[in-house]
Design a protein that fits this description.
The longest helix is centred in the C-terminal third of the chain and has 27 residues, at about 175-200. The protein has one domain. It has helices spanning about 1-15, 20-30, 35-55, 65-90, 105-120, 120-135, 140-165, 175-200. It has eight helices and no strands. The protein is globular and about 50 Å long. By secondary structure, it is mainly alpha-helical. It starts with a helix and ends with a helix.
């Protein structure tokens, strides 16, 4: 039981920590507002839970088909390119520019960004299918391993943006500008890479 939880937790951390599109968006938002960044994380986690539920119901294998993955890939790359554009466009915004205008509506928008970006990412499908195979091969207790993974994801999407947000006073406007440039380039790279993997 403990081994299943720990392996699930480590798998969750392994999936959470690498610098991917969701982490870039979370960090970018955390520089401005903590709750908005967490909302993106919860959106991504909700998409993971949806795929997990579909997997448990035996429906997720429907997504493991070339044409479905290609559709998701096109949607995902388009969304990534759009997010890269938005971040590049707002590269000159100050850290406190949107402080007063942040509302529950904008947090819902952040949640939907995280959900959409994760849901239309074909790698999400591949990840959960591989997790199912791994837990079966290792004879882990699936429910306990999943709880461990979800605990790791929850820990990451709340603590990582917290530390980024708490350190924002040490970040100058110039650094924010360059971080926005960096974020947009990374998201652009992910979007183009996704397209090339599908049609290359």
């Amino acid at each position: 039981m403990i081994i299943s939880f720990l392996e699930g937790f480590l798998l969750g951390m392994g999936a959470s920590i690498p610098l991917g599109p969701i982490n870039i968006l979370i960090m970018n938002n955390a520089l401005r507002e903590y709750k908005s960044a967490v909302a993106i994380g919860f959106g991504a986690m909700s998409a993971d839970l949806l795929y997990l539920s579909l997997l448990l119901l035996g429906i997720a294998t429907f997504f493991d088909q070339t044409y479905i993955l290609n559709i998701l890939g096109v949607l995902g790359s388009t969304f990534l390119l759009y997010m890269a554009y938005l971040i590049f466009k707002s590269r000159n915004n100050t850290l406190n520019a949107n402080k007063e205008t942040t509302t529950s509506k904008s947090r819902i928008a952040s949640y939907l960004q995280g959900f959409a970006l994760t849901f239309v990412n074909p790698y999400t499908v591949a990840f959960w299918l591989s997790i199912a195979s791994y837990t079966a091969h290792k004879n882990l207790e699936p429910v306990i391993a999943i709880v461990g993974m979800l605990c790791a994801l929850l820990l990451w999407i709340t603590l990582m943006p917290y530390f980024v947000h708490r350190s924002k006073h040490r970040i100058s406007q110039k650094m924010t500008y360059y971080f926005n440039i960096f974020s947009s380039i990374v998201l652009l790279g992910f979007g183009l890479s996704l397209l090339m993997n599908m049609f290359g």
